[in-house]
Inverse folding.
C-alpha cells in the first residue's frame, strides 16, 4: 500500500495535540484523591518540558458527576463549560487541557452537539451572557492531559532516570492500561487511536520501556457508574465490574495498572482493598495486589521524582515491590510525614506493605 | 389522574431533549447494546427492551417506564454508543428518560429513582456550596469503608498530606483551593438561567412529598434525617440478576 493511502485510512485515529500554550482545567476527583498527580502534571509540563500552562483560579467544577448523576441538566453543564471557555478566551488561550476523563467526555459531547445542532451553541451563548455577562470563543482544540504527556512521551523518555524495566531480569515490566470509558467510547475522534485502537497509554508505556498486556476484559468499564457508586445501596455494581477486570487480568501477572482517568484509578485501587477484606483475594504475583498508578505518577517516576511527593503512599495498594523492580530507592518510613517533617503514625492494613 | 397528565404527550416531551434526538434514530432491536452493557450483567436490565418500549410512542408505556426501577440501572459508561450498528445511544435515551421522570415527579415511585434525592443532596449541593462535585472533607471514611486505610490516613491528616503534595485545603491556589463567593454566585446564576435550579427544586419537592407519604422525617437541609438515610441505603433485593448467575460468571470464567 502507498504511504499516502495508509495515512488516509488511519487519519480518523490520529489526533491533533497542540505543542504549547494550554488553558488547564482541574478535576474534582483528581484533586481530591490524587493531588500529587495534578501538581506533577503541571511541574512536568512547565519545568521539564518548558511549556506554558495557564490556570485561572476562577475555574470551577464542570458539574460532570452531577450531569451523569442526572441532577444537572444538559443546558446547565453547557453553560458551565462555556464559562470555562470564556475564562480561556479572556486569557487569550485556544487550547484546553482537561484533567478528567468524565470532563473530557462532556467537553467532547458539548462541542459535537454545538457542531450538529448550532442552535444549542447560540442558546448557550445567550444563557451564559444572561447569567454572567461573559462571552466566549469555541476553543481550537481540546486535549486530555494524558494526550499531552503522550505527545511528549519521547522527550520524557530521553530525560528518564528510570524505565519500566525489571532491573533484576532486564525484562520489560508487564503493564495493564485502562483508558476509561468516556475518553473515546462516546466520541472516538477526540481520543488518540479512537475507540478501537486507543493508544494514549500504550504509547507512553512502550516509550518508557514496558510491555502492554492484552487481556479479555481490557475495555470493560471500571464500574464507576456514577449513581452506582455515589449511592451506598448501589456499590455492588461498581465492585462487580472492577472484579471482572481483575479476574481477567490476573493470569497475565501484571506488575502494575496505569489508568487514564482519576476515577478509574481510585476505583481499581479501592476495590482491590475491599475484595481482599471481604474474600481475602489479591490479584498480583505472590499474594500481592496490583498497584494502580496515574499516568502522571508513572511519568514522575520515570523522571526520577520522589514517589512520596507524587503521592504513591495514598493508594491502598502500595508500590514498594514495583519501585524495587524499577530500581527506585525510596524509604518506606518516609511515606507519611507531617508538614514539619515529623513522622505520622503509619496506616495499618495497606496492601503490599 | 390530572387532566394535564392525560393530555401530556410524553414522547414529544422526550423529543425536546437533544440527547434523545441524537441517541435514538431507528433501533432494529439487535441487542448489541445489551450484550456489551455492564449494567445488564449485574442488574435485571435490558437496554434493548427500554429502547423497544420507548419506540412504541405509547404514553402509558412510557409513563410506566418513567416510574420504573429499570431506567435507573444504567451506569452511563456509554459502551453502547461505540457498538450500536445504527449509531444509537441507549445511555443517552436513559438520560432523557431520567430527566423527564424527575421533572414530572415520577422518580419517587421507584426505590432506585428515589435515590436521586441523595445525589442532589450530596453532589448537587456540593456544586453550588463549594464549586466542586466532590470535596475531600465530605468523603467520610466511616461512610466509605471501601476507601480503605490510605484514604482514612489522608482524611485524618489532610493538611499535612496535602502540604506534602503541594496543595492546601481551601487555599488560594493549587488542588482543593477555595472557590470564592463571587464565582459561586456565577454558578448559581447559571443554574437559575438554564433550568438547573428548577430541576433541583423538582427533586426536592417530590422527595418531600414522598417522605410525607412514607411517614418519614424530612429536613430542608443536610443529610442527617430518616428519609435521606433510607434512600441511600434501601435495597429491596429485587434489582439484580440471580446471584447464582453472577457467581457463575465471575468464578467459572475468571478463575
Amino acid at each position: 500500500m502507498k504511504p499516502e493511502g495508509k495515512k488516509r485510512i488511519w487519519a480518523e485515529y490520529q489526533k491533533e495535540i497542540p505543542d504549547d500554550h494550554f488553558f488547564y482545567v482541574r478535576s474534582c476527583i483528581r484533586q481530591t484523591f490524587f493531588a500529587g498527580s495534578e501538581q506533577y502534571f503541571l511541574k512536568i509540563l512547565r519545568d521539564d518540558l518548558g511549556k506554558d500552562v495557564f490556570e485561572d483560579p476562577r475555574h470551577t467544577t464542570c458539574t460532570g458527576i452531577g450531569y451523569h448523576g442526572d441532577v444537572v441538566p444538559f443546558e446547565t453543564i453547557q453553560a458551565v463549560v462555556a464559562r470555562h471557555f470564556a475564562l480561556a478566551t479572556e486569557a487569550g488561550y485556544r487550547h484546553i487541557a482537561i484533567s478528567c476523563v468524565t470532563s473530557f467526555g462532556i467537553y467532547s459531547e458539548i462541542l459535537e452537539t454545538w457542531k450538529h445542532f448550532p442552535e444549542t451553541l447560540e442558546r448557550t451563548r445567550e444563557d451564559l451572557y444572561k447569567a454572567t455577562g461573559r462571552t466566549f470563543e469555541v476553543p481550537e482544540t481540546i486535549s486530555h492531559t494524558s494526550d499531552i504527556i503522550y505527545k511528549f512521551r519521547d522527550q520524557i523518555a530521553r530525560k528518564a532516570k528510570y524505565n519500566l524495566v525489571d532491573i533484576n531480569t532486564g525484562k520489560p515490566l508487564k503493564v495493564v492500561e485502562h483508558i476509561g470509558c468516556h475518553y473515546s467510547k462516546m466520541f472516538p475522534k477526540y481520543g488518540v487511536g479512537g475507540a478501537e485502537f486507543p493508544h494514549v497509554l500504550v504509547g507512553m508505556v512502550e516509550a518508557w520501556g514496558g510491555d502492554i498486556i492484552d487481556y479479555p476484559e481490557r475495555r470493560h468499564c471500571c464500574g464507576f457508574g456514577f449513581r452506582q457508586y455515589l449511592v451506598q445501596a448501589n456499590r455492588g455494581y461498581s465492585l462487580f465490574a472492577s472484579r471482572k477486570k481483575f479476574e481477567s487480568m490476573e493470569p497475565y501477572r501484571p506488575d502494575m495498572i496505569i489508568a487514564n482517568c482519576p476515577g478509574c484509578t481510585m476505583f481499581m485501587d479501592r476495590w482491590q482493598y475491599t475484595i481482599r477484606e471481604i474474600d481475602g483475594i489479591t490479584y498480583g504475583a505472590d499474594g500481592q495486589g496490583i498497584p494502580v498508578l496515574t499516568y502522571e505518577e508513572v511519568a514522575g517516576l520515570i523522571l526520577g521524582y520522589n514517589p512520596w511527593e507524587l503521592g504513591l503512599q495514598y493508594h491502598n495498594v502500595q508500590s514498594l515491590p514495583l519501585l524495587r523492580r524499577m530500581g527506585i530507592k525510596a524509604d518506606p518510613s518516609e511515606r507519611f510525614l507531617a508538614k514539619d517533617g515529623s513522622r505520622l503514625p503509619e496506616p495499618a492494613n495497606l496492601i503490599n506493605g | 389522574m390530572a387532566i394535564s397528565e392525560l393530555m401530556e404527550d410524553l414522547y414529544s416531551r422526550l423529543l425536546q431533549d437533544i440527547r434523545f434526538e441524537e441517541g435514538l434514530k431507528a433501533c432494529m432491536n439487535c441487542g448489541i447494546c445489551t450484550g456489551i452493557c455492564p449494567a445488564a450483567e449485574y442488574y435485571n436490565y435490558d437496554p434493548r427492551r427500554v429502547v423497544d418500549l420507548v419506540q412504541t410512542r405509547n404514553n402509558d408505556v412510557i409513563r410506566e417506564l418513567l416510574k420504573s426501577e429499570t431506567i435507573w440501572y444504567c451506569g452511563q459508561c456509554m459502551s453502547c454508543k461505540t457498538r450500536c450498528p445504527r449509531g444509537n445511544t441507549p445511555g443517552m435515551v436513559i438520560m432523557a428518560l431520567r430527566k423527564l421522570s424527575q421533572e414530572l415527579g415520577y422518580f419517587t415511585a421507584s426505590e432506585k429513582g428515589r435515590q436521586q434525592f441523595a445525589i442532589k443532596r450530596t453532589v448537587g449541593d456540593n456544586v453550588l456550596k463549594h464549586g466542586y462535585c466532590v470535596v475531600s472533607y465530605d468523603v467520610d471514611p466511616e461512610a466509605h469503608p471501601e476507601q480503605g486505610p490510605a484514604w482514612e490516613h489522608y482524611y485524618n491528616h489532610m493538611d499535612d498530606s496535602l502540604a506534602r503534595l503541594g496543595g492546601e485545603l481551601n487555599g488560594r491556589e493549587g488542588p482543593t483551593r477555595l472557590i470564592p463567593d463571587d464565582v459561586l454566585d456565577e454558578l448559581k446564576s447559571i443554574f437559575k438561567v438554564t433550568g438547573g435550579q428548577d430541576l433541583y427544586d423538582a427533586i426536592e419537592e417530590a422527595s418531600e412529598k414522598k417522605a410525607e407519604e412514607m411517614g418519614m422525617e424530612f429536613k430542608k437541609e443536610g443529610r442527617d434525617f430518616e428519609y435521606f438515610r433510607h434512600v441511600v441505603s434501601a435495597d429491596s433485593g429485587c434489582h439484580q440478576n440471580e446471584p447464582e448467575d453472577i457467581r457463575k460468571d465471575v468464578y467459572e470464567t475468571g478463575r
Remarks:
- Chain B touches chain A through 94 residues (CB under 8 Å).
- Residues 250-255 of chain B have pLDDT under 50 and may be disordered.
- Chain B has two domains: 8-104, 116-148+180-233.
- Residues 10 and 59 of chain B are 6 Å apart (CA to CA).
